[in-house]
Structures are given as structure tokens and as C-alpha cells.
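Open question from group meeting: does this chain pack into something compact, or does most of it stay loose? Before anyone orders reagents, we agreed to write out a predicted structure and look at it together. Recording both the input and the output here so the notebook holds the full record.
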Amino acid sequence: MDNEKDEYVKVLFRFYSNVLDEWTVETMWATIVDEERGHYKLDSIPFYAQSIACDDVIFAEYDEDESMLTYRETIEFSGNSTIHVVLMNDSQEIDTVRKIFEDMGCESEKVNDGYFAMEIPAIVEYKLVKQKLHELEEVEIISYAESCLAENHQY
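C-alpha cells returned:
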């Protein structure tokens, strides 16, 4: 393993998912900020976890029961937001919908052909993204959840 890869760790998140209606485990990549203090910067877009976004600094520690590094709390919020999007219209291509938001500066990760998680960077004007989300929901192309809406994206 080279030095760059050594800086990444997997962190386990255990939470109740309203989307899945069950207790869920999700693992995400993080970079080491201060390993001794247990501080890591999230480097993944959460697929299901709520109240967390890419680039948030978290506190995690090794959990014997989980047998891995496990999330305990968020130490510093990045200002990024996480939106979960479900494709409601089978005649639409999910990658076409993702491209609309990519062109607005929002990266996303596809879970499957009907669901993706999207990051709204702190520097992106969320009002414009929200307007597009609303437009697509109104014509029943998507449904979405603001799983982690940063203060700077609330209006």
C-alpha cells in the first residue's frame, strides 16, 4: 500500500434509516486529520446516513463489537449538504438526471438505476439546485430528501 492510500480509512456508521425503515450500517471513506484524537474528514457522499456530509470532520474510534473504526459524532461541519434522490419515472435515465446537477456543480454517486446521493458543495447556490429538484419532483421524475442541509444552504 502506498503512502497516499495509507491516509484513507473506512469508518462505520450505524443508524436507523427512515428510507429503509430499519437499522442500517454504512461504511464510508475518510482521510486522517488527527489519528491520535480520532479526527477524520469524511471523503464519501453518504448513501443513506443523515445529518452528515462529505468533508465534515468526525470523531471516530475503534469499536470492539463492530471490529472497526466507528463514527461517534461530528466535530466540524463542512458547509456541504447531502441530498438523496429517487428516480420516480422509469422512462428517464438516472445518469441524465445526475448530469443536470453535475452541470450545477453537484457531484453524485449512483447507488443503482433508481437512486443516487448528491453532494451540494458549500460554494454552490442551493436555491438554484432546490428549484431544479422541485421542478423535477413536480413532474414526477424524481423524489428527494434533504438528508443533511447545511446552515448556509437553508433559506
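Observations to bring back to the group:
DSSP finds three helices and nine strands in the chain.
Confidence is low (pLDDT under 50) at residues 1-5.
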